[in-house]
Design goal:
Elements lengths: L11 H4 L1 H5 L16 H20 L2 H21 L18 H31 L2 H6 L5 H31 L7 H25 L6 H18 L11 H7 L3 H13 L15 H22 L7
Helix pairs in contact: 3-7, 4-5, 4-7, 5-7, 5-8, 5-9, 5-11, 7-8, 8-11, 8-12, 11-12
Main location: membrane
Organism: Leucobacter manosquensis
Subcellular location: Membrane
């Protein structure tokens, strides 16, 4: 879904483009006898962010399935259940929210999963299978610069998607946004911790597909399954308790729970597994998955697949 068409068939000059941006010779990793310095690595990574963004937005399938998909799903759920009334009202009939408002936090969490895991894992797997990474490995481009470009692209697109999703909910369904600065601060750390964890897990997951053709078939089922058991499409409290426990082993459940604590009234926490938002556990689980993703990425990433 997310192969950058601009990368296909790139000649040697194009492959070495990020390396030349760092001020190094593209004839070999150490052709000038000096290892790339940190400023060069950062400069090359910064230039690579723009390269990755241009490639991403030139692929309509990637833009739709990872960037616009949460907006489309929120629109479908908001319209389909518009006449169902409010959900989550207290005994006195107050405190309920519309279906669009209820699905907003789940779609916000799913957007980070799609961009961080599905987009990045599929993209890297296809680049490796098509030989793009092997060619990059023969240039002075540092893996650090490569991943600065990738993660920079993920951060920019994820932030743009989140802002667009919130704006769409407000304009199309008159969803009321939180007014407390504390909640917006909470959204900020949830976004930062969540997207970095998802991106690192996407890098790790990219090692599984054996070819570009199998990338989508391997990654998409994982992404879909997590969305259905983590409170994105189905009300989490409706799931059997054992399935809630299974979902609690994975990061999307905690990210969605954290997002619900931002956008939903406080009494909705009674519907959670522990009848609380458990923000400490949310942060702990996301941080743990970030560490797992980092460790797996360092262990599994190669410029080309081992035979």
């Amino acid at each position: 879904m997310t192969t950058n068409d601009a990368k296909r068939g790139a000649g040697p000059a194009q492959v070495a483009g990020p390396a030349r941006a760092a001020g190094t010779d593209a004839s070999g990793p150490h052709s000038n006898g000096v290892a790339p310095r940190l400023p060069g690595i950062l400069r090359s990574g910064w230039n690579n962010i723009g390269f990755e963004l241009r490639g991403y937005f030139r692929t309509p399938d990637a833009v739709f399935f990872t960037f616009l998909f949460p907006l489309v799903m929120l629109g479908i759920f908001g319209v389909a259940f518009q006449t169902s009334g409010e959900v989550g009202a207290r005994a006195d009939g107050t405190g309920g929210v519309t279906m669009a408002a209820y699905y907003l936090p789940g779609m916000a969490a799913a957007g980070l999963l799609l961009i961080g895991v599905q987009n990045l894992a599929t993209d890297i797997a296809r680049e490796r299978s098509d030989g793009w990474l092997r060619r990059l490995g023969g240039t002075p481009l540092s893996p650090v610069s490569y991943f600065i470009g990738k993660i920079g692209m993920i951060l920019v697109t994820a932030l743009a998607q989140l802002l667009l999703l919130i704006a769409f909910a407000v304009v199309a369904f008159q969803v009321e946004l939180p007014t407390e600065p504390e909640l917006w601060g909470r959204l900020a750390w949830l976004f930062g911790l969540g997207i970095i964890a998802m991106a690192l897990l996407g890098v790790a997951l990219s090692a599984l597909p054996r070819s570009s053709r199998s990338a989508t078939a391997v990654i998409l089922p994982v992404v879909l399954l997590l969305q259905f058991i983590s409170g994105v499409y189905l009300q989490f409290s409706m799931l059997p308790e054992w399935l809630q426990q299974v979902a609690s082993l994975f990061p999307l459940k905690w990210l969605a729970q954290g997002m619900r604590s931002v956008f939903l009234p406080d009494h909705f926490q009674l519907q959670e597994l522990g009848e609380s938002w458990d923000l400490g556990l949310v942060a702990l689980n996301l941080a743990a998955w970030l560490a797992v993703g980092l460790a797996l990425s360092l262990l599994t990433f190669r410029w080309q697949r081992r035979s």
